[in-house]
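Run log // design_07
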């Protein structure tokens, strides 16, 4: 009985081993860091009917979306700019690629029968600005 009582009366001794917890949580690693760069602001800068001066940027683009029309130049990075003072006009024209060209082989074959290709041109109609200050014109 004494042995049986010793079994029940023994108390569990606390462990003296110290447990350490992390002072800061570990930051998880992230491998998908792309897509955080700001936008490049491509697009048209002057709307239809707007008056522009020579050298004004009309549109910025990565691929050729708008083509230069009359009195419009194209920079090395495909930026369209006005060559003369005037009013901006956007026009769409039917585009027929030359026969036996790579475009006609690659693009035309994939289009449905009867489809029409269009190209958008940005042009500047040369005019003088109405309602400008006389002192500015004298300079």
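design_07 sequence
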């Amino acid at each position: 009985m004494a042995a049986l009582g010793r079994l029940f009366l023994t108390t569990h001794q606390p462990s003296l081993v110290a447990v350490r917890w992390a002072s800061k949580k570990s930051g998880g690693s992230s491998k998908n860091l792309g897509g955080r760069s700001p936008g490049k602001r491509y697009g048209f800068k002057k709307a239809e009917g707007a008056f522009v001066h020579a050298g004004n940027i009309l549109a910025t683009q990565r691929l050729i979306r708008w083509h230069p029309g009359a009195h419009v130049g194209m920079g090395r990075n495909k930026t369209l700019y006005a060559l003369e003072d005037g009013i901006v006009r956007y026009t769409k024209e039917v585009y027929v690629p030359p026969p036996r060209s790579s475009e006609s082989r690659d693009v035309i074959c994939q289009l449905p029968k009867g489809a029409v290709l269009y190209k958008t041109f940005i042009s500047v109609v040369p005019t003088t600005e109405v309602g400008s200050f006389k002192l500015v014109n004298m300079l």
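The mean pLDDT is 84.
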